[in-house]
Amino acid sequence: MALGLQSPWQVDDISFSADESNRKELHLYIGFVRGSRFPDETGTACPVHDKVGREWQHLNFFEHHCFLHCGVPRIKTTDGKVLTVDVPWSRPGSGFTLLFEAFAMALIEREMPVNRVAEILGVNPQRVWAVFNHWIAQARDADDPSSITRLGVDETSSRKGHKYVTLGVDLETARVIHACEGKGKETLKNIQQHLESKGAPKEQITQLSMDLSPAFIAGAAESFPAAAITFDRFHVVKLLNEAMDKVRRVERIEHEELKGHKYTFLRNRQNLSDKQEQSLSEMIELYPNLGKAYRLKVLFNDLWEMPNKAAATTFLTNWCNEVEEAKIPAFMAFSKMVRGHWSGIIHFVESRITNGILEGINSKVQLAKRRARGYRNTGNFINMIYFLCGKLKFSYPLYFT
């Protein structure tokens, strides 16, 4: 009853003994009723040809390891083939029971690093990774992203300063639909090929959100020619803030009073404390160049509230002209970048899509990476991304979730 066995399976014997290190183990020996027949691939009941010994690790019996043993029957089919019967308590090829694997997956789902899971279960970490990767692969095979039309693309790292992985995200369902190693234009091709294999032709992607990476831009033109590109608002604002900080640092060389005020100029004004607000007001009056730069920074962010493309185009044209008149080098460089990515920046007022969903996913991925102290195996890292952010459906028992 505890194992959930049904006829013709039965428990033939039980032993509780110590191993070589004096660790207690429970061993359950499973057999089947003499004369039983088992179905072949067509459902035809076939006689047992012979048996082959197998062993599986099961959930612990209290604090003691537990193992199942069975002489698994092999049947002779009507066409003369000899096939090994699939047992109900384990998947083919595994050395663990389904409940053991489900428990391991439940621990990982609760944000426990795989190495720690292996330590708790008393097995080699590579065996836990093998279980984990099997269920991810099975769920990925069954996954259906064929309805995707709005794609977000971003990159993340598997270890600090090491290998990169590019994520393709369905912006409607906020889930990772494909991840691949690298961060060049070939990763866009990789995502496109995966989607086509799943029934989503490249022409189906009508909106594409990404950062201003030249590699991504080139990859998008080749792999998703029908997609209207929106350059991620947060990446554009990040570059704007970097221009603002360059102006502050240049002024800081001559004016000691500007020390420690980096975020006074970078934060939104409504988020400043009363003291910071007073300091900001004084500094933009005392240092005209900083004042002009700060005004341009604040003014640029009105772009995101423009009602339509025509209004956004007029606004951004006037803003770039003001930058040329101000002649602030850092902002002139930013303005040049804006002109080079004009359509993708302005398209935001029509698409209203950002990589904010990807930033949230990336935060979750980076937290998992810190818990695991980085991933040396990129394949394991990618599968962990699918597990955490792919919203996949799994077929293992869910007694523990």
TrEMBL record:
Domain Transposase IS204/IS1001/IS1096/IS1165 DDE span(s) in chain numbering:
151-385
Q: Which InterPro entries does the UniProt record give?
A: Transpos_ISL3 (IPR047951), Transposase_DDE (IPR002560), Transposase_HTH (IPR032877)
- Provide the Transposase IS204/IS1001/IS1096/IS1165 helix-turn-helix domain boundaries: 85-135
PANTHER family according to UniProt: TRANSPOSASE FOR INSERTION SEQUENCE ELEMENT IS1557
Q: What is the protein's name according to its record?
A: Transposase
UniProt organism field:
Ferrovum myxofaciens
